[in-house]
Amino acid sequence: MHFDIFPETSEHQAEIDALHDLSFGPGRYAKTAYRLREGIPDIAELCFVTFAGEGADYRMVGSIRYAPVLIAGRPALMLGPLAMDPAVRGKGGGIELMRVSLEKARALGHDLVILVGDPVYYAKVGFKPVPHDQITLPGPVDKSRLLYLALRDGAFDGVEGQVSRITA
Ligand SMILES: CC(C)(COP(=O)(O)OP(=O)(O)OC[C@H]1O[C@@H](n2cnc3c(N)ncnc32)[C@H](O)[C@@H]1OP(=O)(O)O)[C@@H](O)C(=O)NCCC(=O)NCCS
Fold first, then answer.
1. Torsion of CA 1, 85, 64, 15, to 10 degrees
2. Between 111 and which of 85, 132, 155, 160 could a Cys-Cys bridge form, CB atoms 3.0 to 4.6 Å apart?
3. What is the pTM of this model?
4. Using one digit for the tens of pLDDT, what is the confidence trace for 69-115?
């Protein structure tokens, strides 16, 4: 399946909200990862949408966003939410959104990305489980789902401590 990836704009907001409702439900607001980025503007240049479909069916089918966080005071990215329309899942769109946005992040000089998600899925683009308690989140999280990706060799070495919100 062919996907076209574009930078997210304000015009996509309503559709992205609907996709998040569908994909994550209202329970997402209580999650630790959500609370870390709540009220913090996403990093606009790393947020992308993806379109697919034929003719009149051509529409937005996926979205990826990144928020800034601190790990023991050091800046890092938190990937999420990533969501694809159920009708096009399993066709490579999610991986493509990650490849494009992570490449852009690297080009912009970001060197470390974390997320809470499925280790098997995110391993496809290089994410690894955080070694035992090297970093922690300020709330409940399934530790086996806390993952990191170093965009520069050694970027995760010696990074230890609690992930916290960027404060304005
Ligand atoms: C998770 C999600 C974004 C994946 O997007 P997608 O476009 O369906 O994934 P892709 O088609 O790019 O995945 C490609 C590969 O990952 C595999 N994969 C997809 N979802 C997976 C999962 N949850 N666990 C393990 N592998 C998975 C596919 O089988 C495929 O494997 P292959 O290349 O070996 O055939 C999508 O299923 C979704 O929106 N889910 C609901 C929201 C969600 O859970 N978001 C992630 C929050 S952490």
1. 120
2. 155
3. 0.95
4. 999 999 999 999 999 999 999 999 999 999 999 999 999 999 999 99
pLDDT of residue 29: 84
Q: Which residues of 124-151 are buried (b: 16+ CB within 10 A; e: fewer)?
A: ebebeebeeebbbbeeeeeeeebbbbbb
Write out the residue range of the structural domain in which residue 106 sits. Answer: 4-165
Q: Residues 57, 24, 77, 9: is their CA dihedral positive or negative? A: positive
Instruction: Determine the length of the chain.
Output: 168
The mean pLDDT of the chain is 96
Q: Are 91 and 53 in contact (CB under 8 A)?
A: no
Which residue is associated with the tokens 């035992």?
Answer: 132
CATH number for 27: 3.40.630.30
Q: How many domains does the chain have?
A: 1
**Ligand 1 site residues, Cβ closer than 6 angstroms:** 23, 82-84, 89-95, 117-118, 120-121, 124
pLDDT-derived band of residue 36, with 50, 70 and 90 as boundaries? very high
Q: Which region holds residue 92: left if phi is over 0, alpha if psi is between -120 and 50, else beta?
A: left
- Residue of 32, 84, 98 to mutate, ligand 1, most atoms within 8 A of C-beta: 84
